[in-house]
Amino acid sequence: MKSGSAMARRPVTSIVLCVEFLVSLGTAVLTIVAMPFFGIVTNVTMLNSISILSSIFQVGAQCIARERKRFIVPPLISLVLILSGYVLFILSYLLKEDRGMNVWIGLAIMGTIFVSLNWWENYSTLFKSSFLNSISEDIARCRNVVSILSSLVRIMVTAAVVGAYIPLSGRVWSSVTSVPGDVKLVILILVAVQIVSSALCHWFVVVACKMHAMRRSFLLPMYLASLGVLAAFVAPVIIFFQNSSDSRGANYTITEYCNDITYGRGLSGDTFWFERLVRDITHTLCPQHMTDLTEMGLLGGSALCWWLGWMLCTMHIWFLQLQRIERTQNLFVRRMYEGPFLEQSMLLNTQKVSNYVSSSHRQTDPITVYLCATMWHESYDEMMKMIISMFRLDKYRPRKDTNNDVSFESHIYFDDAFKDVKGSKGRHVNEYAEDLVEVIREVYNPPLPCQSILHTPYGGRLEYILPNGNLLMVHFKDKLLIRHKKRWSQIMYLYYILGWRLTRKYFKKFEQGGDESELREKMMVNRNGTDTLPYAVMLLIDRLKLYPRVGAACGRIHPTGTGPMVWYQKFEYAVGHWLQKTAEHVFGSVLCSPGCFSLFRGTALMDDNVMKRYTTKATEASHYVQYDQGEDRWLCTLLLQQGWRVEYNAASDAYTNAPQDFKEFYNQRRRWGPSTMANTIDLLGSGSLTSQRNSSISKPFILYQILSMAASILGPATICLMISGIHGNLPVRVPPVVYLLLCFKLKSDTQIAIAAVMSVLYAFLMIGTALSIIGAMVEQQTIWTPSGLFIIGLVLMNIITAALHPKEFHLVIYGLLYFISIPSGYLLLTIYSMVNMNNVSWGTRETGVHVAAPPPAKAITQRILQAKCCKFLCWDSGKVADQNGQLPETVVLANEPKVNPNLTSQDNNSRRCSTLSVSGIIKDCFNSTKLSLVGEIHCLCMLACLVHIPLIETHLPFIQVTFIFFICNAMWLVATFTLQAIGTSVTIKIPKSNLNLTQTREYLFIDPVGLMFLLGFASLLLIQFFAMFYHRIYTLIHFVAFANTESKTEKRQSDDGMQVN
């Protein structure tokens, strides 16, 4: 069941109905029955008295509280002032001896008291009553149901009050129904203005609170609203009276002016509407004896008492402490606002206690963020960017600072870091590992004093203590000892961090009966393989802190590099983040949190069927595509299926190196395309179950993904149809078919070379296509055609979208390159990806782009002992000198287990490994006698056993998938061409209009299948555009809140970090 949609218990329902009945009765009596008998000024000031019960609740809670009662004075004075206001209000009418007003005065006071009961829930937790707390928790759990019941009760009570008041007051229904048409129009306009203005006011209040501009943008405007309304009403009356007295003479009094207004003297028929409005306001003020100073003083005193009492009652809001980013339900008690008394209800509805949410969801100690990066054949420049990013975070949150809200620990997992050296018995680290050590030395100059070299079951490990106390570990993996490739490196660091480093801190507490959720809510994992700034990481942390069910969050990825391929990717990434990711975030959940820069919650990764399934070995064709070719997307799929949400923050920027070579780009997308499709199909296949388990995945969102998937599958055929509509069928039928056949016969490099040549040719065709569409619109002198409207709308939408991202507006220039490259990216690349699904190689950095670097560090090349993982579970390691000649930590392991002499070491290894499983690793690691470095090595050895089996490269059966994909496109082409060949008998005839929307005698003939596809695609774009606009607003709110809450010191540190580049 979704949050807030549970059914309420019967006692809770009864209490809610009783309270809502009294509140709705008070609102109806006050606004419909009593207020018409008082003046506008009196009504405006009277609304401030609805805070009376809030003051009483605060005083009562302070009296009951055991702690110091230092906050009892403001609500106590507030209560006295409000009661004094009531007394002055009653006296002002008793002095007139108008007995007929007594009833309306009583009804008005009763109505304000009943209305003030509306916010009892805000103060219920102050009484420390288990009964009230349970009622409040039940109401919060059933908030949707409570809101529906409340609305129904208010509608019925209001209708009952109106139905009873009309006959009791001596009126007839015809006086209500027989309203002139112009008056009805005015009433409708006023109602519309009230609804829109109230909704906008409520939204802007929420925005102001979330931006941490509560005092200047919420409290002050709300407090001054009543005074502003009074000034707006009274000032024109005084001005008009002065104008009348100038024309009537100095002896013209306010009493005479009131008589003229009452009897309509001096009002012409063509009077301006504003003058009529001022006369109506004056008419409501005239029943008061404005010349009687006593009466006016009493009314003014009551108004001042109510206003001051309301201010003191809500004074606690000035001192309310908010988190950097707050949920609306944590800011306000009730979701609904009160339209008749908007400013009063907004202040009284603000949470009295900022930590209203259960304390289990609030972080009390620093969050541990593990920065985990996987490396392989990165260039020297890429390594430099990564290490500098870790340097920034170390400087941004020093470990020695006890007030930190976040602590960082960095891990780098280096795949295939060892090589055989001729003449040496042992294996040595390769040149890429040497470059990394040199990069660390160059960034942290002078060299770090605290460093150590350890031998591990998977190879070796370097440990550094960074200048500000945070830890950096570099894990060098030997592919002869442990399985290599990216996903298995991720599995390794997930189990090492979640299963050892994090859990070790709390193991003793768990043994004593501690709560395991205490651990899981405090651990987050960041897979950071790019260049980023500290603020970007903090923005992602905010998302996970705010929503307990957010399992992962990602930021805006910016590709870096030079050349046409990078320019193409810059616009491609921009459109993907601007429209696609925002639409997923707004309407459901992001489907892929990219591995280059993402933040994962430890709880989510440790959930059932997430990390355990993530370790599944690929044994089938679909496994290799889904598991290994797009591991980050598959991990997000597992999170979504388990009920977790993945979010996107557009203000969290990260910069990653993009492929600059055509071949490297095609090989990268050869992995991404089929993996994206496989994971999306997997998610849609379990859509019904996922939507039940995951509140973010709704049935409409699944429908949206189905339409997006259909558009992606039919993309190649759509490109062919677009080109054939201008240049004929020859470019459609021959080149794609020829390239498809060649891909089945030629090697991968040859396929890419042919695709590069064809991409250039298709680029010229796309230029001709664009010019032909423009020329057709000019020749026909109309843009009101489906293709014309679609092209113009697409261009305008991209320009507006870019304008809403001002720092990225220049990327629109690359949109021209993206447009002419559409056949290459959506036709040729799709063919290449589908045909080469049997290729499970990584595709990029296969040989490594090695940039010349300074001489490598000698310490690593001299000596890292070679660990015999699972051959000898325990070993002795000698002393190893670090790169400064200092003696690092030395690990000496003893108590070797007994090995059967009849078995070889490899046999013992196999038998030992066969008894291990993923679920047994963590349990075996945490014997109370192994909570030390010896236990850590023991745990690592078992983990290495789990994944030591070599990866089998194989050719996969892909004919079925490829056949289904291409047969769908072929059927789409055949259906469209067949309808075109039949002629106008099966087309839709649309009258042709010129630029002035004047219909001509000509007609446009459109095939229904093409029109349906065009409308569907346009609908998807519009959905994404509106989602982008919504997401853009809340991204701005989050970023402003972040900027307002950062201290000057942190800003200065962040600015210093930005200069490190």
Describe the structure.
It comes from Oncorhynchus mykiss (Rainbow trout). Helix 17 packs parallel to helix 18, helix 31 packs parallel to helix 41 and helix 32 packs parallel to helix 36. The radius of gyration is 36 Å and the shape is globular. The protein has 43 helices and 14 strands. With 1061 residues, the protein is α/β, with parallel strands linked by helices. The longest helix has 38 residues. The protein has a ten-stranded mixed beta sheet, with helices on both faces. A two-stranded antiparallel sheet has the order 3-4. A two-stranded antiparallel ribbon has the order 13-14.
List the helices and strands and how they pair.
Layout: H1 10-34, H2 40-46, H3 52-64, H4 73-94, H5 102-116, H6 121-124, H7 130-141, H8 143-168, H9 174-177, H10 181-210, H11 214-248, H12 254-262, H13 273-285, H14 293-313, H15 328-331, H16 342-348, E1 367-375, H17 380-396, E2 406-414, E3 418-420, E4 427-429, H18 431-443, E5 451-456, E6 459-465, E7 471-477, H19 486-501, H20 503-511, H21 517-520, E8 523-528, E9 531-532, H22 534-546, E10 550-560, H23 564-587, E11 597-601, H24 602-605, H25 611-614, H26 621-628, H27 631-641, E12 645-657, H28 662-685, H29 687-693, H30 699-713, H31 715-727, H32 730-745, H33 748-780, H34 786-803, H35 814-820, H36 822-835, H37 858-862, H38 905-914, H39 918-925, H40 933-946, H41 959-982, E13 988-993, E14 999-1006, H42 1008-1045, H43 1048-1058
Parallel strand pairs: 1-2, 1-8, 2-7, 10-12
Antiparallel strand pairs: 3-4, 5-6, 6-7, 8-11, 9-12, 10-11, 13-14
